[in-house]
Amino acid sequence: MRRSVKVVISCHVEFGYAANSVVFDRQERKGALEGLECCIRIAKEFDARVSLMIMPEVVETIKGLDLGDNGIGLHIHPEDSHLRKRSLGGFRALRDYDFLEQKAMISAGKEIIDEIVGVTPKSFVAGKWSVDNNTVRALVELGFSHDCSPCPGFASVNCDWRKLPRMCMPYKVSHLDYQSSGTMNLVMVPVSKEIIGGVISPENRIGLAFLKAAFQEYYDSGCPVVHIALHSPSMTSRHYRKLFNKLLKHISKHNVTFCLAEDIETAESRVPPRARLLPYIRNLDAEALSYLAGNAFRRLVQRRYRWSKGEMSFRPIMTPQDTTIVQDIQDSYIHRSWRSFIAKKVQARSRGAPVLDAGCGTCEHAKSAALA
Ligand SMILES: [Zn+2]
């Protein structure tokens, strides 16, 4: 019989809320309160423990909450108000600070959690996945054992994880390069990514069927670890809670053990077998297709935009405002027209008869067809 797959769920606990997407907003405390409670409650239904990566600025807000036997880790964004009060941090990404500045921020965060939550954090996640060689050195010197920040293949102005293969298993980090295996006493636990590069997370817009397929890909490939990551503010939305619940329900039907980041040892092989397309093809539904079409469109626009500016650098050159415009176009023209197309098809086929929900979004479209 095959060995059970370890499933780690890391939840970044921060302020904010969720509407159509996750919004990080310091004024909205419910992301850390209601969001955290819902995350713990849903995980508990499946006997899963969550690695709660807590930002220092939320500790007073969550003080009275029952965190159960879930893991306590540290989540650092340099703009954290508690760090700023101690004249630490600022508005750059973590890796943009030197070794001593990073160490001071991580040390202060550790102290705050220790003092108020009563647990010394051993695991860590950097805000914006922002890590460099100084970060891992600081973590080792401060006694951390696990870092859940690696985001395979992803690069932005704040981080660079392009050396890691998409399906990357945990590794002991090298002091020469945070993206390589070495002998330092820190286990890197990369987040798991689906085939088009999104994180396996209820926040992924690709939809449930595709996320299930992504889990299946890891499971069928014999990967020893799957790492799901989410942000507590997302759990203030019914949509994300439902997705999280359904994803865990699907995962728990397999031979898996839900465990904390601290329970992860380095896997024997860092690079697991090659990607498998079949689970994705089997699970493609309207939601995934509309997302893929939208994504292809967005990339096309971005590329044209770069050409028009005569730039070919890898860094994203679109401003947040441009991204919102593209998102709007995508939502209004691509998703909407695709959905109404599907709705018409279902309506035509069903002729008023009840439509069986085959778990691929048909039910949703049948409902919208009935209303049309
Ligand atoms: Zn964060």
Strand and helix layout:
Layout: E1 5-13, E2 17-18, E3 22-23, H1 34-45, E4 51-54, E5 71-76, H2 81-85, H3 99-117, E6 123-126, H4 133-141, E7 146-147, E8 171-172, E9 187-188, H5 208-220, E10 225-231, H6 238-252, E11 256-259, H7 278-283, H8 286-308, H9 320-350, H10 362-371
Parallel strand pairs: 1-4, 1-10, 1-11, 4-5, 5-6, 6-7, 7-9
Antiparallel strand pairs: 2-3, 8-9
Bound molecules: zinc ion.
Residues 12, 14, 75, 77, 127 line the site of zinc ion (ZN).
Account of the protein in words:
By secondary structure, the chain is of the alpha/beta class. The protein has 2 domains: 5-280, Glycoside hydrolase/deacetylase (TIM Barrel), CATH 3.20.20; 285-371, no CATH class. The chain is built from 10 helices and 11 strands. α5 (208-220) packs parallel to α6 (238-252). The protein starts with a strand and ends with a helix. Mean pLDDT is 84; it is low at 311-319 and 354-372. Bound molecules: zinc ion. Zinc ion (ZN) binds next to loops. Residues 12, 14, 75, 77, 127 line the site of zinc ion (ZN).
Helix content: 25-40%
Total number of beta strands:
11
CATH top-level class of the largest domain: Alpha Beta
CATH superfamily of the largest domain: Glycoside hydrolase/deacetylase
| Percentage of residues in strands | 5-15%
N-to-C CA distance: 50 Å
Structural class: alpha/beta
- Hetero groups bound? zinc ion
| CATH fold description of the largest domain | TIM Barrel
Main sheet overview: 9 strands, mixed
Mean pLDDT across all amino acids: 84
H/E order of the elements?
EEEHEEHHEHEEEHEHEHHHH
Number of helices: 10
Instruction: Write down the overall geometry.
Output: globular
Give unreliable regions as ranges. 311-319, 354-372
* CATH architecture label name of the largest domain: Alpha-Beta Barrel
* Rg over alpha carbons: 21 Å
